[in-house]
Give the backbone structure.
Amino acid sequence: MDKQLYELSFWIKLDSDPEKEINSIIDLINKNKGEIIYIDIAKKKELAYPVKKEKIGYFSYLVFKINKESIEKINKELLVAKNLLRHLIVKRKELTPKEKS
């Protein structure tokens, strides 16, 4: 089965360690036989509106390849992650020039 390209964007709680949370997401993707292509450094940002009573958090995203059957498993595990405020997984067609370098 061919692996497809996906982007996972997510917000991390401000009182969490963003590096630790990103590493746990990477481990989750690797556990499901995914391949990380690009990781954006977490940046402290203000949310457009409060999410779970939080107004500021760390925003990051990563691009990875994985079988589409594994996306549902990853999504379910991210839904119960305590330190993630919100996440979104979308299918990508190609990498941006920034992600290719």
Summary: The chain has a mean pLDDT of 95.
